[in-house]
Amino acid sequence: MPAVGDMVGTAPDAVKAALEAAGCPVDEFEAEDGKIEAVCTDAATGKGMEVAIDPATGLVTEIKDAD
């Protein structure tokens, strides 16, 4: 799993590749509260996760369980 502060990029392909390399295959992207939200599955646990990314910096700003 990625961690808050990790650089994953700003382009969808780069974000998807970085998250998948970190063990969180991406199911979809959403725009939420001015951030990019990647909905992915933690490969280690099978749990759905939401990873918020700052679109200006490409940094992970928050990680939480998917609702």
How would you briefly describe this protein structure?
The chain is mostly beta strands and 67 residues long.
Description of the structure:
The chain has 67 residues and is mainly β. The protein has one helix and four strands; from the N terminus they run αββββ. The protein has one helix at 12-21; strands at residues 26-32, 35-41, 48-53, 60-65. It has a four-stranded antiparallel beta sheet with strand order 1-2-3-4, with helices on one face. A hairpin with a 6-residue loop joins strand 3 and strand 4 (60-65). The model has no long low-confidence stretch (mean pLDDT 95).
Biggest sheet, strands in spatial order? 1-2-3-4
Which spans have pLDDT < 50 for at least 5 consecutive residues? none
Distance separating the two termini: 18 Å
Number of strands: 4
Biggest sheet, open or closed, and with what strands and sense?
Answer: 4 strands, antiparallel
What structural class do the secondary elements suggest? mainly beta
What fraction strand? 35-45%
Q: Helix and strand succession?
A: HEEEE
The percent of residues in helical segments reads 10-25%
Q: Any idea what the shape is?
A: globular
- Average pLDDT figure: 95
Number of helices: 1
Question: Radius of gyration, Cα only, in angstroms?
Answer: 10 Å
Write the layout of secondary structure elements.
Blueprint: H1 12-21, E1 26-32, E2 35-41, E3 48-53, E4 60-65
Keyword list:
67 residues, mainly beta, four-stranded antiparallel β-sheet, 15% helix
